[in-house]
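Structure first, sequence second, as always.
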């Protein structure tokens, strides 16, 4: 079973990937980059070229992701990525963002299966002619889970390198429960290599999926942000717990990762405001690592989380996280 790190827009960029790989080396088999929203005329933005350059992504396997519904744009961007040294790309058919869906991209492409089929036929033909491996990341449909029956029949017509299935509808966004019976359906009705995606937040949960679907891979996103240490062998038994000093190796690794990322952000990003914005995005997830329910520790941790949200300067932020370092 291979373990993939899901693309998360605005979070899992090159700085994050490199820091994660340095602190937790070789725990992830494949990283997926957040999507490139390119265009026929504008091409690939300079910031995306920098994000995806091999020089900035050393020491791990990375797959770029495209967000497009235009075949000319797809071909132009795929050739650009191939020129950067990539022979595998991923097509985003899963993003549920309203701004993306309204433009018939991401999950928005799932509403018209005839257009989707025509797009995929041309895209796979282009990839075949140019020696590019193309994988797909999809949701189950737009509004009704039975839409997946038709979608899977379309996907199965093409030689996708793998099919990553996020087990929600577009309208479920990320809040409603998964619909796992449809992964069973895919296993029974598809010849493609399948990847299970959605709400894997501990090593135990990952191993349960591995046991249920031994031929499938897994993709983890928010779980890695909530508990960055979750795949470390030495602390695998603690991956479902909140963080604290009673699990010292996990505690040490968490802060090693945080501190490295903090220093890199300060070095690479333009000013305190940008650094704080990025850190607050991360703490939306990383807060799950800390106890906020017990009487003394929970009260102090909750106080620190509020202080992080209110931070206006890095000195404020450093004061807030010092509470977490002390309490755990």
């Amino acid at each position: 079973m291979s373990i993939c790190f899901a693309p998360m827009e605005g979070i899992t960029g090159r700085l994050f990937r490199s820091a994660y790989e340095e602190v937790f080396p070789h725990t992830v088999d494949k990283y997926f980059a957040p999507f490139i929203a390119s265009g026929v005329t504008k091409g690939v933005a300079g910031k995306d070229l920098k994000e995806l350059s091999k020089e900035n992504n050393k020491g791990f396997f990375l797959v770029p992701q495209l967000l497009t519904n235009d075949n000319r744009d797809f071909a132009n961007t795929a050739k650009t990525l191939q020129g950067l040294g990539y022979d595998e790309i991923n097509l985003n058919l899963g993003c549920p963002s309203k701004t993306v869906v309204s433009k018939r991209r991401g999950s928005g492409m799932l509403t018209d299966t005839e257009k989707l089929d025509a797009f995929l036929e041309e895209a796979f033909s282009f990839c075949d002619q140019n020696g590019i491996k193309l994988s797909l990341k999809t949701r189950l449909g737009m509004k009704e889970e039975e839409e997946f029956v038709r979608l899977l029949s379309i996907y199965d017509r093409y030689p996708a390198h793998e099919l990553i299935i996020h087990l929600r509808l577009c309208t479920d966004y990320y809040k409603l429960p998964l619909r796992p019976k449809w992964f069973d359906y895919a296993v029974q009705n598809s010849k493609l290599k399948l990847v299970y995606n959605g709400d894997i937040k501990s090593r135990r949960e990952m191993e349960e999926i591995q046991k249920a679907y031994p031929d499938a891979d897994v993709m983890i996103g928010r779980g890695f942000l909530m508990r960055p240490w979750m795949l470390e062998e030495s602390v695998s038994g603690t991956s479902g717990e909140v963080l604290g000093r009673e699990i010292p190796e996990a505690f040490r690794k968490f802060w090693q990762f945080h501190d490295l990322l903090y220093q890199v952000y300060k070095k690479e990003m333009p000013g305190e405001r940008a650094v704080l914005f990025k850190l607050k995005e991360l703490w939306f997830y990383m807060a799950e690592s800390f106890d906020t329910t017990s009487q003394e520790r929970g009260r102090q941790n909750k106080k620190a989380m509020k202080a992080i949200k209110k931070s206006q300067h890095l000195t404020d932020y450093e004061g807030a996280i010092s509470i977490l370092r002390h309490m755990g």
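Margin note: The mean pLDDT is 91.
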